[in-house]
Amino acid sequence: MFLMFVQKQLQAPSQGQSDAPETIPEEPEKLPSFFITARQLSAELPEEAWKDWPSDFSINLDHYLYGGPKVEE
After folding, report:
1. What global pTM score does this model have?
2. Is 66 helix (H, G, I), strand (E, B) or coil?
3. Cβ neighbours of residue 73 under 8 Å, at least 6 residues apart?
């Protein structure tokens, strides 16, 4: 469902936001796999954005997302 949201946001960035929840069709159209979508999104990021990304993000995911204790490498 999250990927459907991301896909809709990428397809129509200029449309206004609606407070009404989207309905899910009975038979959703075939969506690309998570990894294909992630690769496409990462390819769209400028190189400067990757330089600011922490090198220990995968190890310290809970720290960066929720403020948990940081694991030292």
Report:
1. 0.38
2. helix
3. 56, 59
- In this predicted model, what pLDDT tens digit does every residue of 22-64 receive, in sequence order? 666 666 667 778 888 888 888 888 888 888 888 888 899 899 8
Contact 54, 64 (CB under 8 A): yes
Q: What angle do CA 14, 16, 12 make, to 5 degrees?
A: 40
Handedness of CA 57, 62, 63, 67 (dihedral sign): positive
Tokens representing residue 31 in the block: 């969506």
Closest C-alpha to 11, from 22, 27, 20: 22
Whole-number Å distance between alpha carbons of 36 and 43: 11
